[in-house]
Amino acid sequence: GYDYWALGHVHRREVVAEDPWIVFPGNLQARHIRETGAKGATVVAVEDGRIVSASGECFDVVRFEQLSVDVSECDRRAACEDLVDRALAGARDAADGRLLAVRIELVGRSAADAALRREREAVVASCRDRANAYGDVWVEAVKIATGPVSAASGRDIVETLQLDAEELRAVVREQARGGVESLLAKLPPGLGLADDGLDLRDEATLTTLLAEARDEVVRRLLEADGAHPPETEE
Question: What is the pTM of this model?
Fold first, then answer.
């Protein structure tokens, strides 16, 4: 017999059903980078005692976004930064004049990977400078999550490393898990890892760390072999 269910707790708008209306209206203003996208309220229109619509209305004054920029096709740092600039421009336009807070993540296997990591501070500074040029865009953080391009098919050591990493993954995972459990057992009751901390008990976190470690070894092997010489900006 209910006409409308207004659900709370979840800070993201969702229309679950329309007969009857079941709606998560979300929150009026995002509080941090994990609450991305438009925020506001749901306006319910009633005619003759019946709900005829439930539309979302934006009320946020600051909008948070996470920009994933694929730099797979880039072979130089400058080209990666140009892609970031385009992503920032698009996100700023979509924010409709609001102050925009963004977290930028560079992804993809790229020939520019080594330069991006070697010159991380310069990359971050460039991203912030480009955002500042728009006036209403603020960079919350820049994450470099790229990987190296395994250069030629003749690089047997790289191919072997890729295979060995897969075989060792389960062993390393168990060793890491055992070390974390041992550490947590020594902590006072109720004291664990923070919500935003590094949780090595999490399967996805372990998988990510192992992949990053493998990529770092591949990266150094390729640089030592001259596959990706240091980048020189013109």
Answer: 0.69
Q: Which residue has the tokens 């560079």?
A: 106
Going by the DSSP 8-state scheme, the letter that residue 230 receives in this structure is P
Q: What is the largest CA-CA distance in the chain?
A: 77
- What tokens were used for 201? 């008990």
- Residues 107, 69: contact at Cβ < 8 Å? yes
The pairing of strands 62-70 and 50-58 is: unpaired
CA neighbor of 118 nearest in space, from 36, 15, 220: 220
> Which amino acid, one-letter code, is at 8?
G
Tokens 């890729």 found at: 162
Burial 156-192 (b: 16+ CB within 10 A, else e): eebeebeeebeeeeeeebeebeeebeeeeeeeeeeee
Strand segments (E) across the chain: 4-6, 14-18, 21-24, 40-47, 50-58, 62-70, 99-109, 137-147
Rounded-to-integer distance, Cα 116 and Cα 130, Å:
16
What does the buried/exposed string (b/e) look like for 56-83 if buried means 16 or more CB atoms within 10 Å of the residue's CB?
A: eeeebeebbbbbebbbeebebbeebbee
For residue 77, the 8-state DSSP code is H
For position 214, what pLDDT does the model report?
74
pLDDT digits (tens, 9 = 90+) for 51-96: 999 999 999 999 999 999 999 999 999 999 999 999 999 999 999 9
- Helical (H) or strand (E) element with 168: helix 156-186
Q: Are strands 50-58 and 99-109 parallel, antiparallel or unpaired?
A: unpaired
